[in-house]
Design goal:
Elements: E1 2-11, E2 14-24, E3 29-33, H1 40-48, E4 55-59, E5 64-66, E6 78-82, H2 93-97, H3 105-113, H4 129-142, E7 147-151, H5 159-176, E8 180-183, H6 187-193, E9 196-201, E10 204-209, H7 211-216, H8 221-226, E11 231-238, E12 243-246, E13 261-267, E14 272-276, E15 282-289, E16 293-300, E17 303-310, E18 320-325, E19 332-335
Helix pairs in contact: 3-4, 4-5
């Protein structure tokens, strides 16, 4: 197990990561997300031993790194998968994967598992981006690292390929039983692939939890906004009753809330339904067609509320509508 205790990393006099604590399970995939410059890639470099740390410790079964006790990258048994693939252009696929291996059985295993048999004698210049990333992953897995660090491995690929390849990578990591920390700027990728998600802001973990709780029960507005589209609906919790009354006329028992009075209710666009109604309080401001769905912006009580519907719900701009909350999960509220 990889354990990080009170890890801090500085660039000169600038603090980049501060008091980071986390533990990586035996075959866990942890996704790290956050805005540009929040410290995601810096954390990976520190775990790999590529940059020094200012404080804290990084521990694995066979080594422990601190500010005073540095452990060289080659002694950490860490695998890394980069967005630029980092393949040797003069070597074939099979030679890249088996590079520096004396026993090629693991290389052959991952050539077969990742569907690279037809390309084993091909050099990287003749491969597509997805094929190159499979080769890079196969090479990493063939060396049987203690854990793997993935730095935005799919960012250079087109959208259609990303969806398939993210699942191939997840399946391969699970098949190998190797834990991984995966940095991404793609929220959908993080939510769909990770066993847990860590949301970073300015070098600090805002929340680390399973994807469902990070998305449905964010600890603050920053996490809520970062992991998806949000609506903060003005609401009031009736004192002593824990009932919510919102701008859309909705009442629901609030679970695990100690708040009362004026609050903001977090609703995702898919938590709402929309219906044409001449007496409705809302008015269609805009519509975005998304293929399988439509995203409407509705003017309601001096704010714009996002509502996602089926693609066949077709409403016109300026049309009067009524909104209703359809989610059955406990809602999240924030202090006003």
């Amino acid at each position: 197990m990889l354990t990080i205790n009170n890890l801090s990393i500085n660039y000169g006099h600038t603090s980049v990561v501060e008091n980071l604590n986390l533990a990586l399970g035996a075959d866990e995939i942890l996704m790290l997300v956050g805005p540009t410059g929040c410290g995601k890639s810096t954390i990976l470099k520190a775990l790999a031993g590529l940059i020094p740390i200012a404080a804290g410790e990084i521990s694995h079964q066979h080594w422990q790194a601190t500010f005073k006790q540095r452990v060289a990258p080659e002694k950490r048994n860490v695998g890394m998968v980069f967005q630029d693939f980092a393949l040797f252009p003069h070597l074939t696929v099979a030679e890249n994967i088996a590079f520096r291996l004396t026993n090629h059985s693991q290389a052959e295993r991952w050539i077969d598992t990742l569907g690279l048999q037809a390309f084993r004698d091909v050099k990287p210049s003749r491969l597509s981006g997805g094929q190159k990333q499979r080769v890079a992953l196969a090479r990493t897995l063939a060396h049987q690292p203690a854990f793997i660090l993935l730095d935005e491995p799919l960012s250079n690929l087109d959208a259609a390929l990303k969806d398939d390849l993210r699942w191939e990578i997840r399946s391969a990591l699970k098949a190998a039983g190797i834990p991984a920390i995966w940095v991404t700027h793609d929220q959908e990728e993080a939510l769909s692939v990770g066993d847990r998600i860590g949301v970073l802001r300015a070098g600090k973990l805002e929340q680390i939890d399973v994807p469902e709780r990070c998305y449905n029960q964010p600890v603050n507005r920053f996490v809520a906004r970062f992991l998806g589209e949000t609506n903060f609906i003005s609401a009031e919790i009736a004192s002593g009753k824990n009932l919510i009354v919102s701008d859309v006329g909705f009442e629901q028992v609030v679970e695990h809330s100690q708040l009362s009075g004026q609050v903001d209710l977090l609703l995702r666009p898919e938590d709402l339904a929309i219906q044409a109604d001449e007496l409705g309080k809302g008015k269609i401001y805009s519509m975005r067609y998304e293929g399988s769905s439509r995203l409407y912006q509705v003017e309601l009580a001096d704010k714009l509320v996002k509502v996602r519907t089926r693609h066949d719900v077709n409403l016109r701009q300026g049309q009067a509508v009524r909104l209703a909350i359809t989610t059955t999960r406990p809602v999240t509220v924030f202090e006003r």
